[in-house]
Amino acid sequence: MSAPDASLAQTLSLIADELRALAHNNLQYTDDAYQIQRNRRVLELAAQLQSLTDLRPPQEIQRIFSQDLGYLTPLAVVDTATIDPDGKVLLIRRADDGLWAMPGGACDTGETPAAAAARETWEESGYQVEITRLLGVFDSRLSGTQASRHLYHLLFAAVPVAGAAKTSNETSEVGWFGWESVPWQALSPGHYQRLQFVMQWWLNPRTGAYFDWEPWQPPDA
């Protein structure tokens, strides 16, 4: 069977992730043997669905799903828009896909999101930065990010305070770009929308923090 295209694979992964979260979270609040059996079956199906877009066998994915026993929520990740005194933004070229992106990654337990943003920037670019502002929170499903987990991207602004360009095992190149020279067509998925917002904020600092809004009503409304 041929591999699904990127957009279909992304959709299948997010469906599997949501099913996994629903099953896990239901298991936190039931002692009913039938509900436990049904939700464990949902976990099996979620693992099978994830395996359609993953090189790992369903059994390994199911084992990972079953061991993740806590109440599941979207994963918190950070991106950092570091802008120097000349108005240039710091970007890194990712080693995995060869595309450009703002430095970023997952928050570690025990650190604030702002600390994670500064740490990831230093690890991926070699620059020490001062975080100056939270620019917004982006839902990965709505900003074009390709990931097997539902992510909340916390986007921060920063200024450089020390260091020099340095690549890592995650980055193959580091560069500073004026807005006219940003490689807009070669950005890693999701970074185009977030970097467009950074540029909008830079040109108009009074721009409010970004957040995604979907209308919500109680289920019985």
Helical segment tally? 5
What is the string of helix and strand elements?
Answer: HHHEEEEHEEEHE
Strand segment count: 8
Radius of gyration: 20 Å
What overall geometry do the principal axes of the alpha carbons give?
elongated
**Helical residues, percent:** 25-40%
Terminus-to-terminus distance: 44 Å
The CATH topology of the largest domain is Nucleoside Triphosphate Pyrophosphohydrolase
| Total domains | 2
Low-confidence segments, given as residue ranges, are: none
What are the defining features of this structure?
2 domains; 5-stranded mixed sheet; alpha/beta; 221 residues; 8 strands; elongated; Nucleoside Triphosphate Pyrophosphohydrolase; 3-stranded antiparallel sheet; 35% helix
Explain what this protein looks like in three dimensions.
This protein has 221 residues and is α/β, with parallel strands linked by helices. It folds into two domains: 62 residues; 135 residues, Nucleoside Triphosphate Pyrophosphohydrolase (Alpha-Beta Complex), CATH 3.90.79. It is 35% helix and 24% strand. It has five helices and eight strands. A five-stranded mixed β-sheet has the order 4-1-6-5-8, sandwiched between helices. The mean pLDDT is 88.
